[in-house]
UniProtKB/TrEMBL annotation:
Residues 5-226 form the Heparan-alpha-glucosaminide N-acetyltransferase catalytic domain. This is Predicted acyltransferase. The keyword Transmembrane helix applies. GO terms for molecular function: acyltransferase activity. The chain crosses the membrane at residues 12-29, 49-66, 87-103, 109-129, 136-154, 193-214, 226-244, 250-274, 286-310, 330-355. Keywords: Acyltransferase, Membrane, Transferase, Transmembrane, Transmembrane helix. It comes from Cyclobacterium xiamenense.
Amino acid sequence: MKPTRLISLDALRGFTIAAMILVNYPGTWDQVYPPLLHASWNGLTMTDFIYPFFLFIVGVSIAFAYSKRLQAGFPKPEMYKKILTRSLKIFLVGVFLNLIPAFDFSDMRIAGVLQRIAIVFLVCAFLFLNSDWKKQAYLAGSILVGYWLAMTLIPTPDEGLVMLEPGRNLAAWIDRILLPGKMWEGNWDPEGLFSTFPAIVTGILGMLAGHILLSDKNQHLKANYLMALGLPLVLLGLLWAQVFPINKHLWTSSFTLVTGGAAFLALGACYFLVDILGKQKGTRIGIIFGANAITVYVLADVLSLVFYGLEIGGQSLNMHFLTAFSGIGLPLKFSSMVYALLFVGINFIPAYLLYQRKIFIKL
């Protein structure tokens, strides 16, 4: 296998980060189109695909990066050290973002988006270095089945019932026992400990896609394999949803398969269009965002303190924008979305400057 750089993967990573920023920073949370919101509990919206897509891409990137290192003869202890260091840095940056701006350590949230990314990266990278794709696939299936059985058969000790309601399920109970610090929803957290296990499977699915892309098969066959795997995964997830609902907050097994299958389909389509047919028009924006993906994500969180927290003339910058747009008769939801797009554009500026100067910050 000869690892090569895929324009489609770089672009998909960048567009995924841009989508994260878009849905995280509307003009106001009171005025948001439903597809730009997460499903309130069971169900699936466009927004719910973004996070699993990024974890899937993390898995693909692991396959490419560490295949190259293994072929170059890098000693595993050295790679382990770098994996641990990078995971710790990403995790700590996530905790830092939870602390700003007040830095109230008594009310600190340990869980978070970057923290889960760090854990998924750590586990998947170690798995990739110490197992083949078949063992990874068996492990992924075992985790999904085990998680399903645990969540649907084991009663929560505090209620004595099997439940899949907000804060009233086995995952929430485990997190209340083991997860330090405050939780996002008071008595439960969408990035909790137990639900991170199926999230790791999302990363494993990405590694399996990476295995296909790194194989010696011709390009068209690789694209076919990605698409051929994606559709059955989606269908299996939809079937599983009849007994274990699609739920991003719990990262249910059905959610893992539907979003993972969709990621296979998206990567296969992008690979076919961009890397095989050479249709690269429009990919540059994604490549620029993706070159410093996590850095841009962190920067967006920091910049939000200025745009949402700094008051000028009695209003924050986002509210000034909404007032101006509503003043000319535009609907508030549309104005809120335009603001989010503008905020994505603002974050593109530092991403572009870093890319132009060939500065790639690897947390």
